[in-house]
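Subgroup meeting minutes
Present: P.N., E.W., G.H.
Scribe: E.W.

1. P.N. recapped why we're keeping a running log of single-chain structure predictions: easier to compare across weeks, and new members can see raw inputs and outputs side by side.
2. G.H. added today's entry (168 aa).
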Amino acid sequence: DTPAGAYGVTLRAVAGDARADPALTLEATGRPEVRLSTKEGRLSGSVTAGRENAVKLVVKNEGSAPAKNLSFSAFEPSGWEVKFEPERLEVLEPGKEAEVTARIRPSSKAVAGDYMVTLRLSGDEGVSESLDYRATVVTSTLWGLVGVALVAVAVLVLGFAVNRFGRR
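Output recorded in log:
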């Protein structure tokens, strides 16, 4: 937990009548430890096919050195788009956190169900973190309503025809 920086140390060496007190400087370089999670802590959520869905992410540096040049990427199903706002973070100081929004747009032809989207973070000094987000695709109910309306119209036409012409 020592912060990065230079620290002065004096060594004392004694042997008989000989004595030495050299002053040394120790440099603690530290290292960044970045964690990626959602704002609510949930790793799943609903998304609508063909529409942009926002997922709030939190990036936290739990290390002892600044995390530099953090960039975001995603591994998503075919036909999907994932964009990040902001696309990169230049510096994230130790103990600090930043909010990032992942904008997930499933394909308009996506079938209702569960899909896995891997959100990745990488930066200088080997900083790397990933998060698997389970996106449940919900399709529009418009076509379901159109189907119900067509069935209702067909039943009405059939009822009218039977009423008008009788059973023959």
